[in-house]
Specification:
The protein has 333 residues and is an alpha/beta fold. It folds into 3 domains: 13-61, no CATH class; 72-183, ornithine cyclodeaminase, domain 1 (2-Layer Sandwich); 191-312, NAD(P)-binding Rossmann-like Domain (Rossmann fold, 3-Layer(aba) Sandwich), CATH 3.40.50.720. The chain is built from 11 helices and 15 strands. α1 packs antiparallel against α2 (44-65), α4 (87-103) crosses α6 (181-199) and α6 packs across α7 (214-226). The structure holds nicotinamide-adenine-dinucleotide. Residues 158-160, 184-185, 188, 210-216, 236-239, 242, 278-281, 285, 300-302 line the site of nicotinamide-adenine-dinucleotide.
Length: 333
């Protein structure tokens, strides 16, 4: 798991040999008349001279550029082993991060992305951040999505493919490169659930979750953990089989929350005090007249609701307006 890296062009033995070899080669002579290369006589002094230049070159490069750093590489299974499925830990981390953000301890600059156009099913976005406090760290997530993955179940790949690179906040050395797919999904659900915990009415008892994908699965965990007043949770997905399978996963966990797969999203939203949207839809489906007047809408996919709907809400709250504003595409980013 620990890899060792030489960065900024440290000189390998091979490079040194090549360098020394070049010096030797420069002491051959080309005979124009015969077209042959003649080795010049190499005196012991010449050999010492070559060695001194080589060693000096090697030492200089070493003192200026040789930085030995250890980078921790965490694959998905390592991330899980480190405690990813600990809902309490994830909820606490998500909450602490929002508190740090409110205290101004986090620098979260604008995303930079590669979008290849409307009809292109892939995109890549760099999301840099500095997190201060007791254990400061800087890094960025390279968040990518390929909707083509859905068309090829045989690839067995999710839509969202993410990695994170973390750098030491003091030395700026890279410290960790880790798989960020599941972290992203869990964090998304955790922060949406925190939104519901602090912003929804305290008497909220019923909820609807639209989207039975990876984020949806983590949403159920977070809702069960942090919203004890929710006693009835309806789950909808265009893929009804997948939806039922997700609900079935939570059958035997010993909760008093009734979790059911439902066939009609409109009817479900009408009864919901809190709505959680975590779909990959490209066409907004949520209608304002489905929602109770005092419902809380947790909007995690980019286009669960049309822009007019979002603008008509009594209050709209985002964690970071610069990053999560209604972008040129008119949807939440
Ligand atoms: N806000 C954030 O910070 C954040 C972070 C990560 C992912 N996301 C978004 O969350 C969404 C879900 O991601 P995921 O990884 O769970 O995807 P996923 O592919 O695992 O699941 C998406 C589910 O949505 C369903 N779906 C699509 N259109 C639907 C519709 N109109 N009605 C009902 N169900 C529909 C699909 O059938 C699928 O089961 C994505 O849009 C992703 O971009 C947001």
């Amino acid at each position: 798991m620990f890899g060792e890296t030489r960065i900024f062009g440290g000189v390998s033995k091979g490079a040194y040999r090549k360098y020394a070899g070049n010096i030797r080669r420069s002491h051959t002579k080309f005979d124009k008349n015969t077209g042959q290369l003649h080795k010049k006589h190499t005196s012991p002094l010449y050999n010492i001279h070559t060695a001194v230049i080589g060693i000096r070159y090697y030492m200089e490069r070493r003192s200026f550029f040789m930085i030995k750093s250890e980078i921790l590489f965490l694959k998905q299974e390592d991330v899980i082993e480190a405690g990813l499925f600990d809902t309490e830990l994830v909820m606490r981390s998500a909450e602490e991060t929002l508190i740090k953000w409110a205290k101004g301890e986090i620098v979260n600059t604008t995303k930079v992305g590669i979008h290849l156009g409307e009809n292109h099913p892939q995109f890549w976005v760099a999301m840099p951040a500095y997190v201060g406090g007791d254990h400061p760290i800087a890094g960025f997530k390279w968040a990518a999505e390929s909707h083509e993955n859905k068309q090829h179940p045989e690839w067995n790949l999710p839509v969202g493919i993410d990695i994170t690179i973390l750098s030491d906040a003091t030395t700026a050395l890279p410290v960790c490169i880790l798989d960020a797919g599941l972290i992203t999904a869990f964090r998304t659900a955790a922060s949406g659930t925190l939104g519901a915990k602090y912003l929804a009415k305290k008497t909220a008892k019923t909820a609807t979750l639209c989207g039975a994908g990876i984020v949806g699965r983590f949403f159920i965990r977070c809702i069960l953990h942090s919203l004890p007043n929710i006693k009835h949770l309806e789950v909808f997905d265009l893929d009804q089989k997948k939806c039922q399978a997700l609900v079935d996963e939570f059958k035997d966990i010993g909760t008093d929350v009734e979790i059911v797969a439902v066939p009609d999203i409109g009817a479900s939203v009408r009864q919901a005090d809190i709505f959680f949207g975590a779909t990959t839809t490209k066409v907004p489906y949520l209608k304002a007249d489905w929602c109770k007047d005092d419902a809380t809408i947790i909007h995690m996919g980019p286009c669960e609701a049309p822009p007019e709907f979002l603008k008509s809400c009594h209050t709209m709250i985002v964690d970071n307006w610069e990053v999560g504003h209604l972008s040129e595409s008119k949807y939440l980013t």
